[in-house]
Amino acid sequence: MSEKKWFALYTRSRAEKKVLVELEYAGIEAYLPLITRMRKWSDRIKKVEEPLFRSYIFVCIHENEYFTALNVPGAMRFVTFESKAVEIPEKQIEAIRYYLNDPDSLDADEQPIAAGQLVRVKHGQMEGLIGRLMRYKNKHRLLVIIEAIGQTIMLNIPRTRVEVVNEAKKETNGESSGKRR
């Protein structure tokens, strides 16, 4: 039997939690990254758990479970490239889990990084991934955007875990920053 692999499954709008229950009922390993946010209504403010990626859930399946996962109520389609489901590397799934569970706030005496600068994660599960600094959340934590599944994930990362990337150097390493020189 083939090895299990992670894939991103696109769901109906606001059906992620229902799809998770249905997948688990079908015996399929699934992961729905949730974040807690404060939501304000006219009469109250409440903490709610929301999907990190709206309308997406991750499934770890064998090739022969592909259609079982797709036939779960609320599942729409797999994220594909050239009509083939795109495998999500285990390292990215673990990185999302790690950072959603990382309350740690480390002190940093390093120079500030300007919004929009390219940064590389230098410690932890996401080591080596590159993103753009969106803004400082507080004195020691950054909000960094990293591409995943064709969507953007905003991570709350301690300043001590990132370093500035020289965009010209990044381009010479065979990667493109998307800017023309």
Description:
The chain is α+β, with helices and mostly antiparallel strands and 181 residues long. The protein is built from 4 helices and 14 strands. It has helices at residues 16-25, 66-70, 90-100, 167-172, and strands spanning 5-11, 29-31, 34-40, 45-51, 56-61, 75-78, 80-81, 84-85, 87-88, 118-121, 130-136, 141-148, 151-158, 162-164. Strand 10 and strand 11 (130-136) form a beta hairpin. The longest helix is centred in the middle third of the chain and has 11 residues, at 90-100. The relative contact order is 0.16. Mean pLDDT is 80; it is low at 104-109 and 171-181.
Number of domains: 2
Give the fraction of residues assigned to helices. 10-25%
Supply the CATH class of the largest domain. Answer: Alpha Beta
Could you name the CATH topology of the largest domain? Alpha-Beta Plaits
- Count the strands? 14
Low-confidence stretches: 104-109, 171-181
**Outline type:** globular
Main sheet overview: 5 strands, antiparallel
CA distance, first residue to last residue? 48 Å
Mean pLDDT: 80
Strand content: 35-45%
Output the structural class. Answer: alpha+beta
Secondary-structure element series: EHEEEEHEEEEHEEEEEH
Number of helices: 4
- What's the CATH architecture name of the largest domain? 2-Layer Sandwich
Calculate Rg over CA atoms: 18 Å
CATH superfamily of the largest domain: NusG, N-terminal domain
